[in-house]
Design brief:
Blueprint: H1 6-20, H2 24-37, E1 48-53, H3 56-66, E2 71-78, E3 99-105, H4 106-111, H5 115-125, E4 130-135, H6 157-174
Parallel strand pairs: 1-2, 2-3, 3-4
């Protein structure tokens, strides 16, 4: 599958649309939380961590906003948390109680240089504890199966490992 191949995108777009359709993330997240809470190994008095990549970042934000009593930590890697629509993920900040980590690819930052500032402002105004970093990498840098883009590797092992260390640190400090 390639995001640059029109035939592949014709297959992928309907799947992406179903995952991001209004209300679907919230319903799915509710089902996941209920499933976890039904497991005998799960201590429901403890918080849950969620993370997302690319389109999963906004899903993480929506989950953290809908379940502030259960989500204690959230991470988003690659970008896509700010847009000019009334349902932009960054506008959910007042509903979020989790501590957040956001890693933005340099390529996403170049495409949308004000996103980091808007996120920082939204989180500060809502008193959401958050760390936001720009990674010297292309969008998709954490995924080892990303195809080569314009002759350059997208996956960046060193930066992907650094991002995962940050996420694990967030979870370790927040969810114990």
């Amino acid at each position: 599958m390639s995001f640059k191949n029109p035939d592949d995108m014709a297959k992928i777009r309907p799947l992406m649309a179903s995952a991001t359709a209004p209300g679907n993330a919230e319903k799915d997240a509710g089902d996941f939380v209920a499933f976890l809470d039904a497991q005998k190994e799960v201590d429901q008095s403890k918080k849950i961590g969620v993370q997302g990549y690319c389109m999963g970042g906004p899903l993480m934000m929506r989950t953290a906003a809908v379940f502030p009593h259960r989500i204690g930590a959230g991470a988003s890697l690659h970008g896509n948390l700010v847009n000019d629509k009334p349902d932009s993920p960054h506008l959910l900040a007042p509903k979020i109680k989790a501590r957040l980590y956001v890693g933005i690819a340099a390529s996403d930052h170049a495409r949308q240089p004000d996103a980091k500032d808007k996120l920082e402002g939204a989180f500060a105004d809502a008193h959401v504890a958050a760390e936001i970093e720009i990674y010297p990498a292309k969008h998709g840098w954490c995924m080892s199966d990303m195809p080569v883009d314009d002759g350059l590797a997208v996956y960046n092992r060193a930066e992907a490992e650094r991002a995962m260390e940050k996420v694990l640190e967030l979870y370790g400090e927040t969810l114990r």
